[in-house]
Write a structure and sequence with these properties.
A hairpin with a 4-residue loop joins strand 9 and strand 10. Helix 19 runs parallel beside helix 21. It contains 22 helices and 13 strands. The protein is of the alpha+beta class and 575 residues long. It folds into 4 domains: 54 residues, no CATH class; 98 residues, Phosphorylase Kinase, domain 1 (2-Layer Sandwich); 214 residues, Transferase(Phosphotransferase), domain 1 (Orthogonal Bundle); 165 residues, no CATH class. The strands form 4 sheets. The chain has a 6-stranded antiparallel beta sheet with strand order 1-2-3-4-6-5, covered by helices on one side. A 3-stranded antiparallel beta sheet has the order 7-9-10. The protein is elongated and about 95 Å long.
Length: 575
């Protein structure tokens, strides 16, 4: 090795890089060195020399198991320690293995019955920085006490002088797989994810940044409780330090779920975990990550994470073949139209904030993200949307569907009658009288429906959306029977009820009612052009599964019918 000048800052950088590079193997180590040393040949040469020296030492002094690429081993490859005692516990089979240690199933053998998971350090790391990290992880877990974080139960030193600790054993699946297996709806997935936000916030309040949040480190047990695991690469953040802490390619570093500042060795703050939370929520909602990452092209992966634009939620959901898309929809108990309505707007803005490239543009805390998700589910304004009257009015409508839908039915009926009067005001007295009679008929229908809704609300109780749906079904059935000889009144009821079903996001029922109304109009009221135009316009708006040509044809025919009936304009969309 050439003796190049080595100042203290460079030497510290070499030591930091060595700590991370020693845990990598093969091409991963080569890529790491090329990335972090490309602009400094002094650091590059010193790092290569240190790694070569470590390799020589390992060949002379290490046991055979320590010469194997531990990151490539499966739990089955771990040393068989079944029956070995650690404190009050007896080890069972290996559950998992990482760069620093192995996790074993274990049970307690004394007066208590307890199933645990025990993590113990590889013998090769005795006295190393990895051992310090291991002990730090144990200390971090000791400081955390939250129902959504796996609890630390015990710890000690084994017969080889290596540290170990026992944790709560979680029998569960990664959060994304569990949500798919349970066919959780989009709202239920957000509720489940909020448990993780609260756990991460608890850690942040104790100045702990996890740094490796990903689905495999978040298990959900049989009761639906999410548990955050593996604080092996977590960092204690000094709240008074100007630059908090920095990162490198640590053993638990997972590029797919890393924040841009982790890729670029930037400062680590609570916003780093917020970014990873955004990725996990994105995957829960879409079934994939927001970037296409080439596993064999490290620079391209880093560019995508640090500079790429996340794929839109709707686009991510429909990426892949048709069977994959249908499977994602089935797992989420939704259809494409309902999915698009749910994710657009506030939810998209929440994810855009969490996934901002610059940490200062993200949510400052996991709690802030959790608060916005709670507001979203309750239909309230979120903090990252514009505080305009229109926005708040729209959120009010979504929160009060029951009251607003009933009011909408009444208003629609009144508008139908009142508009007829206004439009016919310049015509002959006979036409004006006919319009007045139609308005009176529409008002009678409105009064009747409101009376039915009121009694349905009292009799059915429970969820207000269910009461409204039952009320509208009863109103439609009764109207078809009562007004059999007055098809125009029936058509008004069907149009109003279809609008109400759409307000409840029950679009299939709404489309069915419109089709029924069109059939009645053709058979019993062929001259009711205004009603036909209104129904065709609604159908073009609500039947989103229809081919585009058919939608346009219906909209054009609806326009012509309403103009022919004397309507000055087409009613606006229900949404």
């Amino acid at each position: 090795m050439n003796r190049l000048p080595m100042d203290p800052d460079r030497w510290q950088r070499v030591c930091d890089l060595f700590e991370d590079a020693i845990e990598l193997r093969g091409q991963a180590r080569t890529d790491f060195i090329a990335l972090h040393c490309k602009d400094d040949p002094v650091v590059h040469e010193a790092l290569e020399a240190m790694l070569a020296g470590d390799a020589r030492t390992a060949l002379l002094d290490a046991a055979l198991v320590d010469l194997v690429d531990t990151t490539a081993l499966t739990p089955a490859d771990a040393p068989d320690c079944s029956g070995e005692r650690l404190g009050h516990f007896v080890l069972g089979n290996a559950l998992g293995r990482g760069g620093m240690g192995v996790v074993y199933a274990a049970h307690r053998e004394d007066d208590f019955r307890q199933q645990v998971a025990i993590k113990r350090l590889h013998q090769r790391w005795e006295g190393s920085l990895q051992a310090e990290r291991f002990v730090q992880e144990r200390q971090i877990l000791a400081a955390l006490s939250h129902p959504n974080i796996a609890r630390l139960l015990d710890g000690g030193i084994d017969a080889h002088g290596q540290p170990w600790f026992a944790m709560e054993r979680i029998e569960g699946a990664p959060i994304t797989a569990w949500a798919d297996d349970q066919h959780l709806s989009l709202s239920a997935r957000i509720d489940l994810f909020r448990q993780v936000c609260r756990a991460v916030q608890h850690a942040h309040e104790r100045f702990v940044v996890h740094r490796d949040l990903k689905p495999d480190n978040i298990l959900v047990d049989g009761s639906g409780n999410a548990k955050v695991l593996d604080f092996g690469v977590a960092k204690l953040v000094d709240p008074l330090a100007e630059n908090t802490t920095r990162t490198g390619m640590a053993v638990g570093f997972t590029p797919e779920y890393a924040a841009p500042e982790q890729i670029s060795s930037g400062n680590i703050t609570a916003a780093t975990d917020v970014y990873s939370l955004g990725l996990i929520l994105y995957q829960l909602l879409t079934g994939r990550l927001p970037y296409d990452l080439d596993a064999h092209d490290l620079p391209a992966r880093m560019h995508a994470i640090s500079q790429g634009t996340p794929m839109r939620l709707e686009q991510a959901l429909i990426s892949g073949d048709s069977e994959q898309v249908l499977q994602r929809l089935r797992w989420r108990n939704t259809d494409l139209g309902s999915y698009r309505r749910f994710v657009r707007g506030d939810l998209t803005r929440i994810l855009q904030t969490a996934l901002a490239k610059e940490p200062e543009r993200r949510y400052a805390t996991a709690q802030a993200m959790d608060d916005d998700l709670q507001r979203l589910l309750r239909g309230r304004p979120v903090s990252v949307s514009g505080d305009t009257f229109t926005y708040r009015a729209r959120k009010f409508v979504s929160r009060n569907r029951w009251g607003v839908a009933m009011a909408s039915l009444a208003v629609l009926a009144l508008i139908g009658g009142s508009l007829g009067i206004l439009l016919q005001s310049s015509r002959v007295q006979a036409e004006a009288a006919r319009a007045t009679r139609e308005a009176e008929q529409q008002q009678a229908v409105t009064d009747f429906m409101l009376q039915v809704f009121s009694s349905a609300s009292v009799n059915t109780g429970g969820d207000p959306d269910i009461s409204l749906a039952d009320a509208m079904k009863l109103a439609v059935d009764t109207a078809l029977e009562t007004h059999e000889n007055n098809p125009q009144v029936t058509l008004g009821v069907l149009a109003a009820a279809a609008t109400g079903y759409d307000e409840l996001a029950q679009r299939e029922q709404a489309v069915a009612l419109i089709r029924q109304g069109l059939d009645i109009q053709q058979r019993h009221a062929p001259h009711a052009l205004a009603e036909r135009g209104r129904l065709l316009t609604l159908l073009s708006q609500l039947d989103i599964e229809a081919p585009l040509e058919q939608v346009l044809a219906r909209a054009e025919e609806g326009l012509q019918a309403q103009y022919a009936a004397g309507s000055p304009r087409v009613p606006s969309s229900t949404r």
